[in-house]
Structures are given as structure tokens and as C-alpha cells.
Amino acid sequence: MGKFVVIGERIHCISPVIRKAMAERDPAPILKRAKEQLDAGATYLDVNIGPAEADGEDLMKWAVQLLQNEFDNVPLALDTANKKAIEAGISVYNRAKGKPIVNSADAGGRIENIDLAAANDAIVIALCSAEGIPADNDERMGYLTTMLERGLEHGMDPTDLWFDPLFLVVKGMQDKQMEVLEAIKMFTDMGLNSTGGLSNNSNGMPKHIRPIMDAALVAMCMMQGLTSAIVNPCDLRLMETIKSCDVFKNNTLYADSYLEI
Amino acid sequence: MPFTAKSGKFNAKINAVEVGTGDKKITIGGENVLPFYTFDDAIANAPKVGIEITDGGLDNEPDCIKKYYEGCTSVVDMAKKAASFEGVDFLSIRLEGGDPNGQNKSTEELIALLKEVAEAVDLPLAVCGCKNVEKDAELLDKASQALEGRNAMIMAAKEDNYKTIGASAGLAYKQIVGAESAVDINLAKQLNVLLTQLGVNGQSVVMNVGTATAGYGFEYVVSTMDRVKAAALSQSDATLQMPIVTPVASEVWAVKESVASEADMPEWGDQEERGIDMEIETAAAVLVSGSNAVILRHPESVKAISKMIKELV
Fold first, then answer.
1. Is B128 a domain residue?
2. Which of A39, A73, A175, B242 is packed most tightly, with the most Cβ within 10 A?
3. Are B1 and B104 in contact (CB under 8 A)?
4. Would an 8 Å CB–CB cutoff place A260 in contact with chain B?
5. Is B186 within the bounds of a domain?
6. Which domains, and CATH codes, for chain A?
7. pTM of the model
8. Does B115 reside within a domain?
9. Nearest-CA distance from B199 to chain A in Å?
10. Residue B202 is part of which domain span?
11. What angle do CA B268, B53, B21 make, to 5 degrees?
12. Which of A252, A257, A261 lies nearest to residue B235, judging by beta carbons?
């Protein structure tokens, strides 16, 4: 098995600094966040440009080239509701370090993003939901089957669909947490890859608590076979946990300096 | 359904490290497939064979090797002769006389000899120390300086002296740094990490992950090399993508199976043939386990292993 894939989530237009930098095409703040995340151990960087209805194509192209030129073709997840923007981003994307990730498709209104990924030989994050949160794992697996079949029909390799079980917030849905973990195990048993916004579990908790909850959950998820997560790599506790779990899983060879590399 | 063979080539590859300068320069490593898996992809650079001499000259050679150096009166003569044998890609000189528990030759004396040898041959060079970590720190530092511009392999930095040797060979004099561990996979990785943290370019590092003569705990050697290649290629572990250089000679010519005379062990047969066999078997085994270069001593072993490599790659 390969190492756990950390997708850095910090280039996100919800942040005022990034939103402003994107609007003004100002490289500095975006490159700074990219470097921080890569130094901290991110493999992929997520580039969220929001809905970007007006100039999404131009913006995504700019962001892809900016990041890949600066950081040796760093692989990227292209994150927007604007399909044309994703295609534009892929048109200038260099695959030397990994395929682009389309973020994201679901089994409802966004299912066509699977077709888009297939047409562009990309990876796609496939959310196991259609409208709202799946009620149980039967529903999750139903969505998974729909999306997997869609991908296969379009000639995708099953491992290029990275299934997202939909991580749920503990404060409010504590009783559903084990179900998410069981879903991951089912994906793993089918030989599929998985990812997701894992830190959603700790939404609304005090700042000092969140890294603890996130680290505990990532360890449990990796035990179930989770292969990736979209997280903040600058969270040291989380990254130390991921690197340690990679050692236990024999995904990476232990050396005394393993936390520094 | 028709069978479609899937290529076993990897996205990752072993670093290609150039050793030496000029026409005789060699490149070690560079492959993106398992050892000799030419059916998966072409091997970027065939494994290389080095020949070893020591500062002790002829006195230090087993009787069965002495005759190949007939007429040589000095280490420099031997170096020239060794460089001329069929199949030799590089010359390795082992400064074993520096060992404080042995002859304890001075660093000055050994470095003066090293310079003479280096001037006499234009082949790529490897310099091996005396296996005493303190003395090697001093010896290999001076050797790095003396060979400036030759792009030589300095064998080797260990856990206890990597700072001195890494700084000298890797940073100050731009040689190739050998990183030596004794059949300890975690330490092999750790040493590479430490050297790169010191500032040494990972592309200028080769590994000696340890070896033994075939039959002497050799399965640990094989599993170590297998695991290194698996991490380097299938897990894309950049801290283990350094090519492996295995000094076979110093192990093989120290075991009784190679050196016991026929008079002492009549049932084992001819001593020279036995020694060559031991050296060839060990070298072939470490090559198929992933070594990118081997260092041998007997000219016949060099010839045979070089032929084996040519026929397989």
C-alpha cells in the first residue's frame, strides 16, 4: 500500500486573504499557503475557487500554472462547482507528479463530474450522498454503486474514484460516527480508495480540542483503510498521527527521523 | 479472455549517480524496475563492477590472486594492472592499513599513496576506509580532499562519523558519499535522512546496506536489499532511492571457504576455484537483490560477473 495521501485544504476562497488574492491575481498569499502546506507534508493541494461563475476558467488556469510552476508540478485537486473551470484547469495541468483530482462529484446533481473526470483521465472525489446526509450505510453504499458504475461505464479505473463517506460533526451526530468508520471498511474491502473532509467531525469544538479529535479519528479511519483525507496539514498533531499510522501500516519504512520527512 | 501482460515498471526510479570524470565516467542506478527485470522496462544503466586493491599491496593478497599481478612491485603498479583486467568499470582502494588495531599507518602515508594511485589510473575511483570509525573520519576526510575533482565514491559514512565524512566528501569536496549500515533497514534510511539534513545532495549518495558472504546470514542481506528497493520503487520513498554499492571482496576473502588451502581441507578441492566461486555466488546474489555495483577482488570473478551482467541487461 502507498502512503496516506494528504490533500491540503488551505487554499480556499472562504478565507478572506485567499479570496482577495484570487480576485486580484496576487500570487504571494497563495504561494505562501501552498509552501506551508507542502513543508508540513501535504501531497496534493486543494484549490478551491468557490462557484467562480464569472471568471472561473481564467482563474483556475492561473492558479494551476502558478502553483505547478512554483512547486515542481505539485499535484492538485481542482475544487469548484464550475465545470468549465475544472476543464480549463486540467487543460494546463502537468501530470508529472500525479493525476488531477476533480473535487467533487456526488450521486445527485453533480454526478456528471464523474464523466468529466473520465473524459480527462482524472481522479474524482465521489461523495456518497445525493441530497443531504445519507441516513445509513445502505444508502451510502447505494450511492457508491451508482457512482462506481457510472465511472466504469465511462472507462475509469475503479481506483480513480476516491469515495467520500461524508464525515459528520460529533456535536449533533455523535451516534453516527461508527457508521462512517464502518462505511470506510466496506470501501476498503471492495479495494477502493477513499478520502473526505475529516475535520468536519470537530466543527464547533474549541480550537485546542480540534487537533485531538481529528488525530484520533484519522487513526481510527486509517485502521479501517482510509487512503486519503482533505485536511489542514499545518496541524502538527494530525500529521504526526498520520505519519505514525503509515509506519504501523507498513506504508512507509520507519527511520528515527520519520516525523521530519 | 486474452492475457494482457501488465508492465511492472514503477513511476519512481533509483537515482542515477555519475562516478568519475571524462571518458571512463560511469553511471550507477537510474532504473525504474526490479533488478534485471528487463521485460518490464530497459535497465537504465547496467550494474557496474569494481576491482579492489589495498594499501598492503601484494603482501595482502591471497596466493591465488598474487599471480595475476606478476611483475608488480608497488601498489601503484597493481592499480594500473587492476585497471587493465577485463570487465573492470572502476577501481576501489581499501586503506585497511590505517586501522589503529592493525598496522596503524598514518593518514599522511595512506593519503600520499592514494594520490599516487589516483594519478596512475583514469578509472572512476572508490576509496574504502579501515573500518575504524574515528580513523575513517580522519582518513576519508583527507581522501576526499586529495581526490578533489575526481568525483570518487567515499566509502563510507556511518552513523558515528557521518557528520565529518558527509561534510567533507559531500559538501566541501563534492565527492559521492557512501552511506554504510550493517544490514539494518531502518538505519539505512535514517543515515540517508541525516546526510540530506546535513545538506548533502541526495543525488550524490550511494548506499552500502551491508553484506555477508553467501551462507553467512545472507538471507538478512537479501531481505534488506529487497525491502530497500520495494520502498524506493513501489512506495516512492526518496530517502531510499540511492543506488546500492556492495563491497563483496572484503567479506568473501575473509571466510574459511575461500581461503583455507587444499592441503588443510582436501575434501573442499582447489582453493582458487573455491574462492572464485564464493565471490561469484555472493556477487551474483547481491546483484539480483538490487545492488547497482559490486566490488570484487579476483580478476576471474570480475570477468565472470561482468559477463553475467552483459548477458542479462
1. yes
2. B242
3. no
4. yes
5. yes
6. 5-260 (3.20.20.20)
7. 0.89
8. yes
9. 14
10. 16-312
11. 135
12. A252
Q: What is the dihedral of CA B211, B215, B221, B223, to 10 degrees?
A: 170
Q: Is A251 on the interface with B (CB under 8 A)?
A: yes
The three cell numbers of residue B148 are: 578533489
Which among B194, B197, B237 is the nearest to A253, CB-wise?
B237
What is the complex's ipTM, to 2 decimals?
0.84
Q: How far is Cα B192 from Cα B276, in angstroms, rounded to an integer?
A: 33
Q: How far is it, in rounded angstroms, from Cα B312 to Cα B277?
A: 19
At residue A64, does pLDDT exceed 90? yes
Cβ atoms of residues B130 and B158 within 8 Å: no
Q: From CA A76, how far away is CA A46, in angstroms rounded?
A: 6
Residue B293 lies in a domain: yes
State the Cα–Cα distance between residues B95 and B3, nearest whole angstrom. 55
Which triple of cell numbers denotes residue A146? Answer: 451508482
Q: Tell me the C-alpha distance between A220 and B160, whole Å.
A: 38
Q: Pseudo-torsion of CA A197, A200, A206, A209, nearest 10°?
A: -60
Question: How far is it, in rounded angstroms, from Cα B124 to Cα A50?
Answer: 57
> Which residues from chain B sit within 8 angstroms of residue A3, using beta carbons?
235
Report the phi/psi class of residue A5: left, alpha or beta, with left for phi > 0 and alpha for psi in -120 to 50. beta
> CA B269, CA B281: separation in Å to the nearest integer?
17
What's the confidence (pLDDT) of residue A258?
Answer: 96
Closest chain B residue to the Cα of A2, Cα to Cα: B235
Average pLDDT value over all residues in chain A: 96
Q: Is the pLDDT of residue A43 over 90?
A: yes
The alpha-carbon gap from A258 to the nearest alpha carbon of chain B, in Å, equals 8
